[in-house]
Automatic annotation (TrEMBL):
Domain of life of the source: Bacteria
Pfam families documented for this protein: Peptidase_S51 (PF03575)
Family: Belongs to the peptidase S51 family.
Protein name: Type 1 glutamine amidotransferase-like domain-containing protein
Assigned keywords, A-Z: Hydrolase, Protease, Serine protease
Length: 188
């Protein structure tokens, strides 16, 4: 299996772009990317980070498209060896992943060797659950009963962890916990 790249701020940081390009080079991954902007319920592909990411991908010679799983067929993801999950609301994103059955599709594609990049909410949904996010932001939960994530990573994933350092003790109950500070990334 290819690694999963988790990041808090996506391609806003040069070291994240470099790590991404290095994985593509080392693993000889074709330069075709599906960017899923669904986590931003309002702006979608007009989300600043989605637009910026698309520009960086194109500047580096990637063929890239937006696939909004809320409105497009998830089977379209099968054509891309790289799938980028953009940020936004982790709860809204998880709800749409389940509703469209993209959660199942992403599990299958990852098992087949697709390289996944998760940014912010896109990183959080790849873990065990969003229970830690619901604890930190109960008002964001959007009435969701099950907070179970895609479980592609056997841990809770906390992007922007530097914003929650004062709550370290509260987060102890959500172990294992992968913390990703703004500007950092983890290759899993």
């Amino acid at each position: 299996m290819k690694p999963i790249l988790l990041t808090a701020n996506g391609f806003q940081d040069e070291k994240v772009i470099h790590a991404f390009l290095e994985v593509v080079r080392i693993h000889h991954i074709p330069k075709k990317v599906a960017l899923i902007p669904t986590a931003d319920a309002v702006y979608k592909e007009r989300n600043y980070h989605a637009v910026h990411t698309m520009e960086i991908l194109q500047e580096n010679g990637f063929e890239a498209v937006y696939i909004d799983i809320e409105f497009q067929q998830v089977q379209a993801l099968c054509e891309y060896p790289i799938i980028y999950l953009n940020g936004g609301s982790p709860f809204y994103f998880l709800k749409q992943l389940r509703k469209s059955q993209a959660d199942q599709q992403l599990r299958r594609l990852y098992a087949q060797g697709v390289f996944l990049i998760g940014t912010s909410a896109g990183a959080a949904v790849l873990g065990e659950s969003l229970a830690h996010a619901a604890h930190l932001h109960p008002d964001w939960r959007e009435g969701m009963h099950s907070l179970e994530g895609l479980k592609l990573i056997s841990a809770h994933i906390l992007p922007h962890s530097n914003r929650y350092e004062h709550l370290q003790d509260e987060l102890e109950m959500f172990q294992p916990l992968i913390c990703i500070k703004d500007g950092e990334y983890k290759l899993i």
